[in-house]
Amino acid sequence: MLIFELLDGDWLGFSQVRQQVLDFLLANEHKCVALVSHFQKKDTKILYILDERNVIWGVLSVSESGQILHCLESETVLGIVEAYFQKFRPQKIFSIIGEKKYTDAIAKIFQKLYGTVNKSATEYSLMEYNALLAEEAALAEKPDNKKRHFLNSCEIFDCKNSDFDEMLPIQKAYELEEVVIDRESFNEQNCRILLRRNIQSGIVFGVRYNNRIIAKASINAEGENCIQLGGIYTDISFRNKGIATYLVRTLSNRFKKNKKDVVLFVKNSNSTAINVYTNCGYTPFGDYKIIYY
User: Fold this and answer.
1) What's the distance, CA 70 to chain centroid?
2) In terms of residue numbers, what domain contains 255?
3) What is the total count of domains within the chain?
4) Of 98, 118, 138, which closes a domain?
5) pLDDT at position 41, please?
6) 131-140 vs 243-257: helix crossing angle, rounded to 10
């Protein structure tokens, strides 16, 4: 096996190679939506692993910020991955993201080669939306008139630039509770930049109640056929009222009607969120892990 960097150009066979890499990614898209997104945008270094029969066994994305995304099909490729990184050390290693067993394996490679030790590691369950299961779950749900009355007073909306100031507090709360390793590492300027960029991209959604935004969600990544839903958060004062279920059901159904498969990942330790997503028609299909340095 050999590992190559996918370089843009007009050389003979380039289009064929790029299509071959894309075909591999699309066959595995449900577990690597973000990697497909970076491949489409051409904003990261793309590596692909090829055997002597011209069959692809894995693809990795390495960004300038040190984010490494991977989609590997066999542990037999790990030797070539190690050989590559031994020769071409990333300028920075910020995170490793993807299927659990390969995230762990790549982390061991970096520790072996460079003595790199991670700051945090979180395990997740990958879940996929099924419209039929969502309908069955909704029909089986016991009526709750109090929740129904409350949700009838809520509005789900696509965030616009004019919503930025109102959305910022709940975005900050989300990052402090779900994203940052510790509160001291929270960077409000980065939070503001990311939120404004995502709103301008049309990938942020909110729930408004009594002229106040009380919940949010976003598209974490969009590939060719899949959307990865994420950033789902409800203000602590409005939890246990069915808001997250209402928001996830609505968005998942919308994306499915747009001919997109919908996936998400949820912390294995977050049983409440797992129950919400299960009640929204999601089923687990894989193990996912993110390691930060």
Assistant:
1) 13
2) 126-288
3) 2
4) 118
5) 94
6) 150
Task: Give the CA-trace dihedral at 23, 75, 34, 66, to 10 degrees.
Answer: -130
Reported confidence tier of residue 105, pLDDT bands at 50, 70, 90: very high
Q: Are residues 77 and 160 in the same domain?
A: no
Query: Does this model's pTM top 0.85?
Result: yes
Q: Per residue in 189-247, pLDDT tens?
A: 999 999 999 999 999 999 999 999 999 999 999 999 999 999 999 999 999 999 999 99
For residues 285 and 127, the answer to whether their CB atoms sit within 8 Å is yes
Type of residue at 257? K
